[in-house]
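Whether sequence alone determines local backbone shape is best considered at the level of individual chains. In the encoding step, the backbone of a single protein was reduced to a row of integers, each denoting a local shape. For completeness, the protein is quoted in full, as a sequence line and a line of structure tokens.
***
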Amino acid sequence: MWKTEKGLRISLCAVFLFFSAAMCLTACSGQEEKAEALLYEAHSDETASGGAVSGSFVSVGEDQIKTATVRRTTYKEEFADMAEIEYLDTDSLYISEENAVLDAIKVKPDQKVKKGDVLAAYHVETPKTSLQKQKLLIDQARADYEMGLSELKQALSGMKEELGGMKTKSEKKMKRLEIGKMQKQIDAYKKGEKEVTDQEKEYAKLLRMQKGANLVAKKSGVITDTAISSVGEDIDSSVKIIEMRSNNDWVLKVSDPDSKLRYNMDVSVRLGKSVDDYREEVKGKVITTSNLTEGGGSDDEGGDMMQGEDEDGDGGADVYIEIRDKDKKKYDFENQNVYVHAVSFSVENALVTDADAVYSESVDISNRLYVLLLENGKLHKRFIVSNYSTEKEVLIDQGVFEGQTLAVVQ
């Protein structure tokens, strides 16, 4: 990122190239002279000097002159990623009845449906002999139940008659105990009627489905896929008839292995043509930087991103961002480009200059940064302190002041 001293040597000597800031426009015979800068060629024993250096002047054309200014600004490290919606609450609907035939699909992908809406139509083709056999079994079960209940009730009635003819307290007490046990037995027996009733209901349902039945939505959502190709065919419980998802149960996913997004970071979510040309902007938060599905990684103790395995095992990671429910309902995320904009850190009143105006040199076992300060037509080597830089800019903590001009050596 920073230029090294080696790249600034001329011939066998360590040379610094310096530009004179004194460029003047002189009128001569009604024409302007071409502006020039005076380039210092430093002596080898002056390359470590922190001040101005002397040397012979070399004429340099204006097109070779380039400078940078030390400016004060609020510095922000900003970055953006493109995101897509990942739905979390999805359902698959099947027809569990045997001998079912799919008659029609009543919905299409991307269609919104409400709870109770008809999604598909089908009927059941059960052989007549099977229906008759099932009916006989159910009728026999009902008859057996009624007969057993009747016998228990008769026994209870007889006990009550015997109790009425008894005279001693001890005899009555014993008979009351027997009556109580019989009543409990009857109550327990009645619970068995539910099994018979359920069989009767299933049989009645089967008869109705012979004529036709509907597959309905269990909740509101959006259709994502249908088994339209299976219409008219026999189907079983393994055939997925409808796939649907919830309207608002989703998160934003950024699939970028180089993303700088981190866990719990506040971000801006923008909807529009680009990250800078957008129509709406809402707040979001990074809720995890690991896969929400199987095979993903996990957040480390510090909350930084752990690389999850992608399908190819290349170590790509997915970043998930949560949006408030009211914003999901208010804005059309499904039909617009979605961008995630974030600021990793911000420094107010920061001194900043161009990265190509900063150089480095080795001093003992460490590297030191310096700039070439252009002042009063002379250049001065100034060491600086910087704790952060990018490919384009350098934040300067010490060494220069706002408004100073620096030379950039081409």
